[in-house]
Amino acid sequence: MQALSSPAQRYIHDYPSYDFIDYEKNQLQYFGTAEPMQGFYQKLDRLVYRGEGQINILHVGGSHIQAGIWSGTIRETLHSLHPGIAAGRGLVFPYRAAKTNTPYDYSVDYGGGWEGCRNVEKNKDCDLGVMGISVTTKRNDAWLKIELKENPIIDYSFTEAIVYHSTDAQSYCFDFPNDPQASIQTFADKGYSKITFTRALDTLHLQVKQTDSLQHYFTCYGFKLENNRSGIYYNAVGVNGADVPAYLRSPNFARDLQASPPDLVIFSIGINDALYPGFSAQAYKENYRELIRRIKTVSPHVAIIFTTNNDSYFKRRYVNPNGEKVKQAMAELSLQYNAAVWDMYSIMGGRGSIDTWVSARLAKTDKLHFSAEGYRVIGGLLASALVQDYEKHILTRARR
């Protein structure tokens, strides 16, 4: 079996070349050893060469990730690398029920009245999980619906799902009107139910139902759409405005990972940590260390990629001086955890480069977020860097 498709077939998106992007820097850097990433690549070898196993990638961030375009571009690129490498869509959430934006590749509908809670809301006390967001209803006729949009290249239909939800005696039960015979196995101590559908679906329709007078509410923390195929799950977790402490306020973050322990975590949290002049690199690193500690209780040998912040302004008027500080902090964390770093800050041109990206319509005029095309560009760049690093592993393996 060929390891990967030819370079001409590799990427599903064609991107124009921009003279202000430093393509020579578009690579993964290691300030320690590459041992954890090599372990990840060995799992990828088994999948690519023998068609064996499922791989879970977790990409965590703020609004850059909630929008779904950056992570979605990487997902689709990886899933197009080789026949049979796409396992399923992975983590999704009914964002619209929480009155916030939904990723581009699925739609959300709901009924019955839902109240959202996000990990950036410090005044709320919510037992949040890995997705950092929840929706709660007190109505026994409420429902949620997530419909995957058709992908012309990749089949993301699902035959199984994980529902992360409240599981105490006061919580409503649920079923699935579009597949009444679906099997539901609940693991109350782990905070989720495993669903096996009788046929492949592209729509998840959850209907709340009351089966006991004690039941008076239901909280949903997210879904993972699965099937029994080998392949890669690229799971994206993003909450608008989230910094690293926001994910530390999700007490069930690590518990939820037990259902699908990550083999690789991509950290893109930092733009909200370092948005203002009072940024503390030391506190930033300590917060990351605690988050990594929690993840390693579930996946002790997890591989990690840190993505440095994009260049930005604060208050739209002042160049943010903290991009270099975040870059240095991530280099130090890379050394400590033998993690990789993808230096977006330098690749896009360094300090002040956001102005050029705005002029090229790759970034928005808030000088903080990218445009849809900009997110596709950085997604393609990171995917390219990851694939090229894996190809180096393949060449080294072939020489042995």
Structural commentary:
It is a single chain. With 400 residues, the protein is of the alpha+beta class. It has two domains: 1-84 and 230-400, SGNH hydrolase (Rossmann fold); 88-229, Jelly Rolls, CATH 2.60.120. Helices cover 28% and strands 26% of the residues. It is built from eleven helices and 20 strands. The strands form four sheets. Strands 1-20-17-16-2-15-3 form a seven-stranded mixed β-sheet, sandwiched between helices. Strands 4, 6, 7, 9, 11, 12 and 14 form a seven-stranded antiparallel β-sheet that branches. Mean pLDDT is 94; it is low at 5-13.
Name some characteristics of this structure.
400 residues, alpha+beta, Rossmann fold, Jelly Rolls, seven-stranded mixed beta sheet, seven-stranded antiparallel beta sheet, 26% strand
The CATH architecture classification of the largest domain is 3-Layer(aba) Sandwich
Alpha-carbon distance between the two ends = 18 Å
Compute the number of structural domains.
Answer: 2
Strand content: 25-35%
Task: Record the strand order, biggest sheet.
Answer: 1-20-17-16-2-15-3
Which percent bin holds the helix content?
25-40%
The CATH class of the largest domain: Alpha Beta
Give the total of beta strands: 20
Q: Assign an overall shape.
A: globular
SS-derived structural category: alpha+beta
| Number of helices, where a helix is a run of at least 4 consecutive DSSP H or I residues | 11
